[in-house]
Q: What sequence folds into this?
């Protein structure tokens, strides 16, 4: 399980891929006399096919092409079919989607001198420039 995958975007992505690639792989075969019960060692690790039996869970707040390529690189499609990707982000309806297409939309950049005064300047721009001109048109 890799939680908060978006935090790993700040790292060198090649390094992240190499670390994920070697997870669950034994570095070398150990002396089995010290392991105790040899039957506990799973055959897929000895054969090097643990990639086919591994469950990988990557959690992120947003989708990203790097995440998808990483997910596909560590899954094996030949055994389990298509890898399962679940998008659990809720769909939030927006006001722009509810407007019929026949309404012309304008996106204007409102000049602001600072972030502190941006709200007031936006309101002033709307009331003096946009709203006032529309009122004059209808009166």
A:
């Amino acid at each position: 399980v890799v939680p908060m995958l978006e935090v790993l975007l700040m790292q060198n992505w090649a390094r992240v891929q190499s670390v994920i690639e070697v997870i669950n792989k034994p570095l070398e075969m150990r002396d089995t006399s010290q392991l105790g019960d040899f039957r506990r060692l799973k055959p897929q690790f000895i054969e090097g096919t643990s990639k086919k039996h591994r469950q990988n869970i990557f959690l992120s707040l947003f989708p990203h092409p790097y995440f998808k390529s990483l997910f596909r690189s560590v899954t094996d499609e030949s055994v389990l079919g298509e890898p399962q990707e679940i998008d659990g982000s809720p769909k939030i309806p927006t006001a722009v989607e509810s407007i019929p297409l026949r309404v012309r939309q304008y996106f204007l950049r409102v000049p602001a001198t600072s972030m502190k005064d941006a709200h007031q300047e936006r309101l002033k721009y709307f009331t003096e420039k946009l709203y006032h001109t529309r009122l004059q048109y209808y009166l």
About this structure: The chain is about 40% helix and 0% strand. Residues 22 and 79 are 20 Å apart (CA to CA). Residues 5-80 form one domain. The chain has two domains: 5-80, 95-138.
